[in-house]
Amino acid sequence: xxxxxxxxxxxxxxxxxxxxxxxxxxxxxxxxxxxxxxxxxxxxxxxxxxxxxxxxxxxxxxxxxxxxxxxxxxxxxxxxxxxxxxxxxxxxxxxxxxxxxxxxxxxxxxxxxxxxxxxxxxxxxxxxxxxxxxxxxxxxxxxxxxxxxxxxxxxxxxxxxxxxxxxxxxxxxxxxxxxxxxxxxxxxxxxxxxxxxxxxxxxxxxxxxxxxxxxxxxxxxxxxxxxxxxxxxx
Length: 234
Ligand code: C5P
Prior knowledge:
binds cytidine-5'-monophosphate, globular, 234 residues, alpha/beta, 10 helices, TIM Barrel
């Protein structure tokens, strides 16, 4: 069984680049994330190839549409056998519940994005939400849990509070991870892998620190090592 907590973000624009990087990794030591750029370029065939190589795939397409459309998309993703997929909590209760109904508990993990971390107080104000981002995140995470979702994507900072309010079995997936002394790229609020796990994260999404490393597998081993022995994943 794969007990790694690291999900490597394959943020590439072609199947070849993604497969070249995957060939440098080990499916026993990580999982991989396929997002909008790569999926738009390479589609389900690439997902199937990664799975055939032994990788468990997090399909990060953040579905957000009317309930039946999202439910049907989730059903297709579950049928592909992806390990995890996500939808937008802002789609509301009926959309979240329809997605849950379409993805049987115990098949693919179904998680929600609450607020994009790129959204600040002023962005919420622009769309008529006079609320603090943290308050909206907590509310949307609670809604996702009420609708039976398996967890949410959140920052390491948010993980600290959500772990307390959402309980131990709610899955927290945390991007914005940088090893100590690594380049920040455009990420603003970053945490080290150890800090994120200590804050309650179950899985860490890590892109460039691994994909742009001179030796990706050594970096993956180093990061796995840094968090091994910390609390168990759910
Ligand atoms: O390269 P890096 O480690 O910054 O990649 C992080 C990954 O996590 C990217 O795929 C990015 O889209 C995703 N992500 C993020 N922040 C969020 C949600 C997703 O960085 N709030």
